[in-house]
Amino acid sequence: MDLVSGSNNSFSLDLFRTLSRAQPGQNLFISPLSISSAMAMVYQGARGDTAAQMAQALSFTPGQDVHGGFQSLNSQIRATSSSCTLKLANRLFGERSLGFLPEFLDSTQKFYQAELKPLDFMGAAEESRAEINGWVEQQTESKIQELLQPGAITPTTRLALVNALYFKGDWMWRFGAADTREMPFHSPKDGTKPVQMMHQVKKMPYNYVPELELQVLELPYQSQELSMFVLLPEKSSNGSDPLLKVQDALTPEKLEEWTSREAMDAGAEVHVHLPRFRLEDQHELKEPLAQLGMRHLFCADTADLSGICGQGGLFLSTVVHKTLVEVNEEGSEAVGASAAVASFCMLREEHFMADHPFLFFIKHHQSKAVLFMGRFSSPQ
Q1: What is the pTM of this model?
Q2: Which residues lie across from 207 on neighbouring strands?
Q3: DSSP secondary structure string for all residues of 112-124
Q4: Residues of 189-199 as b/e, b for ≥16 C-beta within 10 angstroms?
Q5: Mutual orientation of helices 102-112 and 66-78 as an angle, nearest 10°?
Q6: 224-246 pLDDT, tens per residue?
Q7: Separation between Cα atoms, residue 178 and residue 200, nearest integer Å
């Protein structure tokens, strides 16, 4: 795993836990890589304590080639097969009266293929909000609409970081629509609710972590460049949230250990029951990022972003993040020819019944970077 992927995965889990504590028992879906990549653009222009706080929160290490690493990682991800739909909108918007350093604008374009767009926040805040929303909607093919709500941009806004992302992948092994049926989902927070439960029996990569009574299932997307990993703890018998213990135990090393191809058993027939669901999530990340240590960045009196505009007074006003994920039966069937060699072995079976809260991650195999992570706690 390269340094940037490792940094991103550490930041992913820290941010996920922070957001989880703020909304216990609720559904949650974020793209930490989208956030850390966008924050790294700001980090280019951070100086002094502001830069030090950002580096610590984002898990950057001294001497690390942060921007070259993100350039390489983003290039790998952009080259992902067309079997997945990945729509990303990522941009900085700044108050036009400030003026921005050409070297900062050049490096943002070079390393992140992103631009800083000057807008008239002071004189036309609402028009600026509409322009940002229109750009995001266009970039995501109308999947993400009205990202910034009224009041999000004001005449005091100086710099806004916006990222929005839409993802949909085709399973390598699709679920048959005829096998989907209504079943109960048991949520400690909301009780029992009906879900449309997908089902299939297939030899899929599977792991079991006995110390946490945790099942781990890999659901590859077509071309196997990306996979969804579902982490399913045993169902709670006392009404407590079974995910809290798992979330507290998660580290980048544990996640890699549990989901590595070497750790997964690919020989077992797995009876998979997984809800069909759609999650749309939005977060204003100013407070969560400050909790992770980025305190100076959001305060006009302490922020040092002089590498962006060459002077003091610039601070990050808002960080808005919106995501959308769809999990359903769809996928293209793969057709191939092979010679079958008969052999005999004992049939191993595992039952994976996701009828209670679970965590899920979408990982890019080549880089080992976590692109998305979420918690499904209750049907919407």
Answers
A1: 0.87
A2: 216
A3: HS--EEEE-TTT-
A4: eeeeeebbbbb
A5: 40
A6: 888 999 999 998 777 677 788 89
A7: 10
